[in-house]
Amino acid sequence: xxxxxxxxxxxxxxxxxxxxxxxxxxxxxxxxxxxxxxxxxxxxxxxxxxxxxxxxxxxxxxxxxxxxxxxxxxxxxxxxxxxxxxxxxxxxxxxxxxxxxxxxxxxxxxxxxxxxxxxxxxxxxxxxxxxxxxxxxxxxxxxxxxxxxxxxxxxxxxxxxxxxxxxxxxxxxxxxxxxxxxxxxxxxxxxxxxxxxxxxxxxxxxxxxxxxxxxxxxxxxxxxxxxxxxxxxxxxxxxxxxxxxxxxxxxxxxxxxxxxxxxxxxxxxxxx
Length: 272
What we know:
Blueprint: H1 5-14, H2 16-19, H3 25-38, E1 87-92, E2 97-102, E3 106-109, H4 110-113, H5 116-125, H6 129-138, E4 144-150, H7 153-157, E5 164-170, H8 176-193, E6 201-204, E7 212-216, E8 227-235, E9 240-248, H9 257-260, E10 265-266
Antiparallel strand pairs: 1-2, 2-10, 3-4, 4-5, 5-9, 6-7, 7-8, 8-9
Helix pairs in contact: 3-8, 5-6
């Protein structure tokens, strides 16, 4: 008996982890995103068959007289919510959320991140950003970069790592056990890519935007600075998001990793 392709894909995703226990960091990260993408493989509802017998002839009716239509009201301007001190709130339309970004950081939109040539320029301009940007080419369409913010002062100070906040988006938005399952791959992949000195710590965190898991990593100091290396995988209103925060703790400008998840807000029109 034939099987739905979606059901096969789901079973393949759910049985993937034992077979890739020793994969590379980049491959593990991709595997986690593949699991999330496979969540959209539920078979669609069967369509109704064609009706049998002659169809009823429509009853002729008189055409209504045209009536004046009310003027369409102008769209209301977007109200930007207030962020924590030292930050500004930035909307991520792909995920249907707002998130805090340190004031003064350079904000790079999805359109720039989708351009390979532009990504090369960013990697050259901001030290250390190439490690994360290189993952985009390896994801093979399983996820797309939605946003990047970078500390512009790192280049002028000659530091080995520019603090940055990045957002990757993949469809569909998931939560519950499937989110936890995918986070296992993602955490292992990021820990290897960033050369973590201890196993990553994963914990569920409350948010206003959906199910979320925080990943905390210990990585070696860079340039004499303690390094923040954190990630959040979130079943946001419009997509599953991988948000990473990386860089010297002294460059975070009011962005507190412990409070970050609670500061995320839903965009206007995002369904609860």
